[in-house]
Amino acid sequence: MKNKSSINEKRLLSLIVAGVLITALFVWPSNYLLVSPGSAHRLAPMIEIEEGAITYPVEGEIMLTSVAMKRTVLIEAIYIGLFKPDLVELRSRNNLPSGVDMQEYFELMQDMMKESQMKATAVALERAGYETKVTGQGAKIVKVLEDSDAYDKLQVDDIIIAIDDQPVHLVSEVINKVQVRELGAEVKVTVKRNGEEKDYLIETKVVEEGPPKPSIGVLITPYKRDYELPIETNIEAGRIGGPSAGSMFTLEIYNRLTEEDLTEDVQIAGTGTISLEGKVGKIDGVRQKIAAAKEEGADVFFVPAGNQQEVEGLEKEEIEVVIVEDIDQIISYLEGI
What we know:
The chain has helices at residues 2-27, 74-83, 102-127, 171-179, 246-257, 286-295, 308-311, 327-336, and strands at residues 29-42, 47-49, 61-73, 89-92, 133-135, 139-144, 159-163, 166-167, 186-193, 196-203, 218-222, 226-228, 233-235, 267-270, 273-274, 280-281, 300-304, 320-324. By secondary structure, the protein is an alpha+beta fold.
């Protein structure tokens, strides 16, 4: 009798343990974020061009796109890891650069968004025939990451004024010159510190998860940046951060300042950073963004040339995917439709 009672107790205990484990799978948060198609947002309501500027009506729509991110529970992380469903991926919650908290990262993304908007306005105005002037005196270091080669070399409040003996005036110039280098390569960084110029050799490395991007391991912000633009714009993108909507901001502003409507009745979406030279740069999450644009009914989606391999083999029957290197190719393509 005792043996039977003991067996029943063990079975009950096993059931309880199994129930706890199963419950944990469904409620216990994992260390991953689920990245999936987000949404497409119409740019027209976000952008206000100053009163008095000559603008023209447009019939179609230009949209920026985003990815959706949410924290996963264990069962979701296991399922995605095993079965790898299309357009869904896992990204570590610890993908921030070492030593950077979420608030610092959010502020950095907002600053990058602001600079992207200013560059987009400048590029759009130039392409529309206006004279613009963008100046800056370098990039100010606001944080040096502990696991970088820059630690104990560069300092907070240093002003980066040159990369490999080439003067830099804007944050984007610093980033572009570093990211074209090979991982592990040494970059000569010239900074101004307390009125003196100092040179340092910094080895590039990857400081965050995701597609490998060479970095010298510092967070930077514009230093004495100034945009002299004949027409002011105000862009309200809410909490959307980062520079990846630059190309679409540029296209929307340009289209409203020029007589020919590039959109007509076409629904346009795309992604990509914008440089002051009009180059469209690589971004993350391009497959998910294309899916979001398709869901919103976009006819055309512009993809940076740097993301071309990621979209090869992607189902494109319901949307025309166009690979571009710069804003001029986008304009030329739409003029030819």
